[in-house]
Design a protein that fits this description.
Structural class: mainly alpha
Number of helices: 15
Number of domains: 2
Strand content: under 5%
Radius of gyration: 28 Å
CATH architecture of the largest domain: Orthogonal Bundle
Distance between the termini: 66 Å
Order of helices and strands: HHHHHHHHHHHHHHH
Length: about 325
């Protein structure tokens, strides 16, 4: 009977056992390697996103008023949420938020879709026109707000002057001082500033639609509106859904343009939830109630995103 001959591996030294490079090499051959690679990103997300979010949640259950240190920072649990249910300003802000977001998104989408379809035709001068169309989106909200505030000024505004010259106005109008026109004027300013966001994403999506689909539709006798309804919009469904969700999040969470134009007035005709939370935190210094308002906005946004994705059936494609 033959005997199997083998050579035993030399024993490792202490240095070889604790050599970091050797340990990393052995770890890279296991399934735990991917967790090690994800660890820096996970720590960064925890520090930048998760911790502030959890802190905001727990702040909504505590009494935190910087101008009233005598009340302390004790746990009050659902006190702020109970106050919110009985707060008429909260319900008014919620209604104004729905109007603000829905109207702005609808107008931005229609203008952005029209601009994207026009630019996609590759006519002479469309590249220059594309740059000009995208310029408003590059303006900071502070600059855009002050610029439109000056243009719509009742005494010095150029828009009032033009409307009077063409006979659409009998006199100079204070657009942001009238409760009947303040919200509509703010929506127009927001739509002008942000419609290039839809234009940019829709233009990118149009480049990915095969031209053969439109040629086949032409042969079948489908007109431009039929092609838009049967080809363009269904093929852009995923992009449109993502763009709408991102813009809704941006509009709900960003009160800066309304803060510059109206500060929530006149009265509370342009008061939205984000602006109300901002005023609670940095005017009344009631960070507990502001935290509760922020939690409600977070829950509403999560619920909207889930419902919108389900209704649009994007995940079924």
């Amino acid at each position: 009977m033959s005997r199997a001959l083998y050579t035993a591996a030399p024993p490792r030294t202490v240095w070889e056992s604790i050599n970091p490079l050797r340990m990393i090499g052995e770890l890279s051959e296991t399934r735990y390697w991917m967790y090690l690679l994800l660890l820096p990103s996970a720590l960064l997300i925890t520090a930048v996103v998760l911790y502030p979010t959890l802190y905001g949640f727990q702040m909504s259950f505590r009494e935190m008023r910087l101008n009233r240190p005598d009340v302390g920072t004790d746990w009050v649990f659902f006190k702020h949420y109970i106050r919110m249910v009985n707060d008429p300003i909260f319900w008014l802000s919620l209604r104004n938020t729905a109007i603000w977001v829905t109207s702005s998104i609808a107008l931005e989408f229609l203008i952005g879709l029209t601009a994207a379809l026009a630019l996609n035709r590759n006519l002479p001068g469309t590249k220059l026109l594309a740059v000009l169309i995208l310029l408003p989106y590059f303006l900071p909200n502070v600059v855009a707000g002050h610029m439109w505030g000056l243009m719509l000024d009742p005494r010095l505004g150029v828009i009032n002057d033009l409307l009077m010259r063409v006979g659409l106005l009998d006199g100079y109008k204070a657009w942001f001082a009238d409760p009947k026109t303040a919200m509509a004027a703010a929506i127009i300013v927001e739509s002008w500033h942000s419609f290039p966001f839809f234009t940019l994403l829709i233009m990118a999506g149009l480049k990915g639609i095969p031209a053969d689909l439109y040629k086949a539709a032409d042969i079948d006798g489908a007109g431009p509106l039929a092609q838009l309804r049967l080809i363009t919009l269904p093929m852009l469904k995923t992009i449109i859904a993502a763009a709408v969700i991102l813009r809704v999040i941006g509009l709900v969470n960003s009160p800066d343009l309304l803060l510059i134009l109206t500060s929530g007035g006149p009265g509370r005709s342009t008061q939205v939830l984000s602006l109300y939370a901002f005023q609670m935190a940095y005017k009344d210094f009631n960070f507990g109630y502001a935290g509760a308002l922020s939690v409600v906005m977070f829950v509403l946004l999560m619920g909207f995103a889930w419902i919108y994705v389900r209704l649009s059936k994007v995940n079924e494609d």
